[in-house]
Structure to design on (87 residues):
C-alpha cells in the first residue's frame, strides 16, 4: 500500500444507545476525532461511535416487526365503503 493515502484503520467501539449494546471492531473511523472514549472489558480505552440502530435493536433481527393484518383491513374497507357503489 502507498503511504499517506489511506485512512487510519484501528479498533473502535460501536454503541447502540437504544439497546444498551456495544461491540468492539476495527474501522476507518478510528482516525476521526469524536471526542468520546470508553473503557472496554480488556482495560484499554477506545474511541466510541454512537449508532441509532444495530443488529440488537433492528426489527428484522429481533423479530418484533409489526405484521399487517391485510385481511382485516380489506374487511374494514368493505364494511365502510362496500355498499356505496351499488345501484
Amino acid at each position: 500500500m502507498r503511504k499517506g493515502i489511506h485512512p487510519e484503520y484501528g479498533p473502535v467501539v460501536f454503541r447502540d444507545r437504544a439497546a444498551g449494546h456495544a461491540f468492539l471492531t476495527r474501522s476507518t473511523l478510528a482516525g476521526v476525532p469524536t471526542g468520546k472514549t470508553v473503557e472496554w472489558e480488556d482495560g484499554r480505552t477506545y474511541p466510541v461511535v454512537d449508532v441509532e440502530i444495530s443488529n440488537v435493536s433492528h426489527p428484522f433481527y429481533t423479530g418484533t416487526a409489526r405484521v399487517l393484518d391485510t385481511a382485516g383491513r380489506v374487511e374494514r374497507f368493505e364494511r365502510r365503503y362496500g355498499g356505496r357503489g351499488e345501484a
Q: What stands out?
A: The chain has a mean pLDDT of 81.
